[in-house]
Amino acid sequence: MSQQLAIDDDLVTYDLFRALVGDGRKADLLDGVIYMASPDTKISNTLNGFLFNMMSGHIDARDIDGFVFFSRFACRISDTRAPEPDVGYVRPENANRVHENELQGGPDIAVEIVSRDCRQRDYGEKFELYRAAGVEEYWIIDPIQKRVQFLQLVGGQYELAPLEENRIFRSQVIPGFWLDVNWLLARPVPRAYGCLEKILAEPTKPSRKRKR
In the chain, what percentage of residues exceed pLDDT 90? Predict the structure, then answer.
């Protein structure tokens, strides 16, 4: 079960959050309260690695100067709000917001792998936090319910992204990048290298811009 920390009933600030949560420990600062994450399950860890390898492999192969990060990297949205997405992506044009120990503001893509102890936050508080912060795409991978949601920011609100053939999601943030929902729900999870080869075999198409 995740652990909730508050200090003397006062709101925890970002600087105190950094001081209390040591390196290598995953936690979220949400509205001045620290939520310590439980250790990963095998499937959560596998999906984290799969998505990180897919995204970082794609931008390397396509020579895109974006930044992919893997958990335990704080996104400082305000002095009392600093989530740590399971996987995140920052566009090249926003690289100036990436610092050694934090990202200033929200990422362009936030990914959360749902576990039993964080379900309410991933579907509730983080949904609203990422929306308000202007996170363009929010991917919610729920291995327990065997459900995947790809949300895209349209006119300041999240909308479910359309899926080609009811299973293919094409990102509007990373040029040429797509995911097959079946990859994320398969057990065992397929090897990232083979899936990435399928993506890279397609010619790169310009991303279709949607009104944010």
Answer: 85
